[in-house]
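Q: I'm writing up a methods section and want to include an example of the input and output format. Could you take the sequence below and give the corresponding predicted structure tokens, formatted cleanly so I can copy it straight into the document?
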Amino acid sequence: MGRTAHWRDGGVPYLSAVNGLLIVNPRSGRGGPEPDELVAEANALGIETHLLQAGDDPAEIARRSDADVLGMAGGDGSLAPVAGVALERNAAFVCVPFGTRNHFARDVGVDRDDPVGALRAFHGVERRIDVGRADERLFLNNVSLGVYARLVHRREGHRRRREAFARLRAWAILVTHREPLGITIDGDPVESRLVLVANNAYALDLPSLGERERLDEGQLYLYVPGDERVATRFVIDAAAGRLEAAVDGEPDELPTPIEFRIEPRALRVLVPDGG
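A: Here is the clean output for your methods example:
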């Protein structure tokens, strides 16, 4: 669909239509509208949609599209692959909160309890934000290593069960797993069971994550209990040759050494006007 410029009072342009694609992950944990309802709302706004099926690769679907705006409706772990394609093409990215916690949506200024309202971002205002890399893997929020990663994995595994039980199981892992990771940070040995590398600063009380006031400071923040470091690059190594990780909440194992770096204001993000 083409785009036609119109003008609000005061001479501010807006777009009456947008060449946009919204990829919807129907398996994200969520409340609110059903996937088909969200697809119908997007189509009514002239936004092309793709409802993910088993085996679909959202990054490849985004790459096959010629859309100027690439959107992802899902949880935090669903966003980075599509945001990465937007970054490759210098296209704009839209986050539609459709997951369990939706931390990125909150921090970028989208109402995480209103996925239908978030569709207005396709006709919204642009922000430039930083992205992080763990080697070549993009992350928007953070990468956790060690016990914190294990805690995240276990909570994710129990997300369809009672929340209190999931929290209890996660804390049991944190309390009983006492072996340090055996890591170095920029060559310095660090005895810790958990490490968090964040894209910009969190209000943080490990192992709980707060909000980020900024997404454009151009800094990585590395947290271990009792220590905080700020830089544009960190290298974490481990004698084991790999570390259990959670990348934006998605479980993974990363080979070491891992080079973490920041790409300042690299990603164009659209948010609803006034958001």
